[in-house]
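[job 4471] stage=fold_predict status=RUNNING
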Amino acid sequence: MRIRTAFLAILLIAGCSPATQNNTGFISGDGTTTVLADSDRGEAIELAGITLDQEKLNTNSYLGSIVVINVWASWCAPCRKEAPQLVDFNLKNPNVKMLGINTRDNEPAARAFEKYFKVEYPSLIDPDGSLQLAFRDSLPLSAIPTTVILDRSGRPSARILGETTRSLLESVIAEIEKD
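[job 4471] inference complete, writing structure tokens
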């Protein structure tokens, strides 16, 4: 009887614990920021696809510029929280290219998200997460949101797991530019 009672108590406690992962296979990031030294950066990556505005986009057209890539989804609460920061960053840093990757989402919800938050930079559509594989050998993406910064040569140089802020992006970019 004691074993059964103990088992039921454990089951009850486990059932009340918050899930750390949803059915998308992603977890919320913890804010960890990784910046790679110039000598530790791998090869340049290329992302190509169709944006939510149905335009073709290839990151090779951004070579020569710092590129901030934010992986997001309309159903992601931390993405909604950081969206105003990203919009503000984009407005105040015109020399930096911004790109979103809308992942595992439906297009009408993603377009509504962009309209609501007044997102003016493009977002590639990534319904199955395949675009994120470009980062697997350098700075793998395992959380939504995640922000990756490419240096002027198109190499992944920094990653922020979880929501970010304008000031954090600006300080990370300053560190990348020092190298």
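[job 4471] summary: Confidence is low (pLDDT under 50) at residues 2-26.
[job 4471] exit 0
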